TrEMBL record:
Name of this protein: Sensor domain-containing phosphodiesterase
Residue intervals of the EAL domain: 24-277
Residues represented out of the complete protein: 688 to 970 of 970
Top-level taxon: Bacteria
Length: 283
C-alpha cells in the first residue's frame, strides 16, 4: 500500500503503542469531563430468584455515553479510571446513584424489599474513606444499608487482606450486603474467604457455562459449601431453562444473565416494578 502511494516513498512508522497511548490519554481527558457532563449512567440487570422466577434485585453496571464513541463499556474505562484519580468520583457516583434509584423504586415495590448490588474497585476498598463515604451516602439517600450489596472480587481482597477485612467488617456491621464476585476465576479458596464477612457468592459465567464433565460436581460442591456457610449463591451466565432448573435443584438461590434479562435503564426498572406491583401506593 505504501508503495502504490508513491514509488519508493515509505509511510512513516507508527508504532501501535503510540496511537494506543494517545487514545488512552484522550479517553482519560474525556472521562475526566464525563462526570460533570452527565455522560456516565448506570444500567441495571435483574437478579432473579430461581425458586419462583421473581426479580429479587438488580446489579448496577456502569455505562459511558460518549458523544463521539457511543456507549463505552466499563471494561474499557474502569481500568483507565483505576490508574488515575478518577476511580474515586466514579465509585461515589455509582454508589450514590444506585442508592437513590433504589429508594425511588422501593416506593413502587411496597413491602417486598428489593436490593441493588454495586461493583467496587480495589482502589475504593483500599482507600480509607470507603466506610465514611458509604455512611454519608446512606444518610443522604435514606437508603437501608441491607438493600445495598457491594460486589468485590477475590483479587481485590487479596491485595491487602488486613485492610480489606477491617473495612468489610465495618460495612457488615452496619448491615450492608457483601458479595464475592467472579467466583471461580481466581484461586477461589472458599475456606480462606470465610475469614471475610461475605454473605453472597456470585459464580462466574465461565464456570456456569463450562461444558466439561466435571461441571456438575464443581457447581454442586461450591453451592453446598456456600449454603453450609450461610451464604447465598448467584449463578451468572445461565443460558438455558435446563441450566436454570439444574442450578435451582442444586440449591443455587439466584440467576443473573441475558437469559433472565439484559441490563436496562432505571426508567425501565421502574416500569417493570409498576407492572409487577400495580396496587402499591406511592409514598
Ligand atoms: P461483573 O460485575 O462480573 O458484571 C457482569 C457482566 O456480565 C456485565 O458486563 C454484564 O452485562 C455481563 N453479563 C450479564 N449477563 C450476561 C450473559 O448472559 N452473557 C454474557 N456474555 N455477559 C453477561 P458489563 O456491564 O460489561 O461489566 C463488565 C465488568 O465491569 C463487571 O463485571 C464489573 O467488573 C465492571 N463494572 C461494571 N460496572 C462497574 C462499576 O460501576 N464499578 C466498577 N468498579 N466496576 C464495574
Ligand atoms: Mg459484579
Ligand atoms: Mg460478576
Ligand atoms: Mg465478572
Amino acid at each position: 500500500r505504501a508503495k502504490r502511494a508513491g514509488g519508493n516513498r515509505v509511510e512513516p512508522f507508527q508504532p501501535a503503542f503510540r496511537s494506543f497511548g494517545a487514545d488512552r490519554l484522550q479517553l482519560e481527558t474525556d472521562l475526566r469531563r464525563a462526570i460533570e457532563r452527565k455522560e456516565l449512567t448506570l444500567v441495571y440487570q435483574p437478579i432473579v430468584r430461581l425458586a419462583d422466577a421473581e426479580i429479587a434485585g438488580f446489579e448496577a453496571l456502569m455505562r459511558w455515553d460518549h458523544p463521539k464513541r457511543g456507549t463505552v463499556p466499563p471494561t474499557e474505562f474502569i481500568p483507565i479510571a483505576e490508574t488515575s484519580d478518577l476511580i474515586g468520583p466514579l465509585g461515589i457516583f455509582a454508589l450514590e446513584r444506585a442508592s437513590s434509584d433504589l429508594v425511588h423504586w422501593q416506593q413502587y415495590a411496597g413491602d417486598v424489599p428489593i436490593f441493588v448490588s454495586v461493583n467496587l474497585s480495589s482502589a475504593q476498598l483500599l482507600n480509607n474513606e470507603l466506610y465514611s463515604d458509604m455512611r454519608a451516602i446512606l444518610a443522604k439517600t435514606q437508603c437501608q444499608p441491607s438493600q445495598i450489596k457491594l460486589e468485590l472480587t477475590e483479587s481485590m481482597v487479596m491485595e491487602n487482606p488486613e485492610q480489606a477485612r477491617l473495612v468489610l467488617d465495618k460495612l457488615k456491621e452496619i448491615g450492608m450486603g457483601l458479595a464475592l464476585d467472579d467466583f471461580g476465576t481466581g484461586y477461589s479458596s472458599l475456606a480462606y474467604l470465610t475469614r471475610f464477612p461475605f454473605d453472597t457468592i456470585k459464580i462466574d459465567q465461565t464456570l456456569v457455562r463450562d461444558g466439561g464433565a466435571k461441571r456438575p460436581i464443581l457447581l454442586r460442591s461450591i453451592i453446598s459449601m456456600a449454603r453450609d456457610l450461610d451464604m447465598q449463591v448467584v449463578a451468572e451466565g445461565i443460558e438455558t431453562e435446563e441450566d436454570a432448573i439444574e442450578l435451582g435443584k442444586l440449591g443455587c438461590n439466584f440467576g443473573q444473565s441475558y437469559f433472565f434479562g439484559a441490563p436496562i435503564g432505571g426508567d425501565s426498572v421502574l416500569r417493570l416494578l409498576k407492572e409487577r406491583f400495580p396496587l402499591t401506593k406511592r409514598a
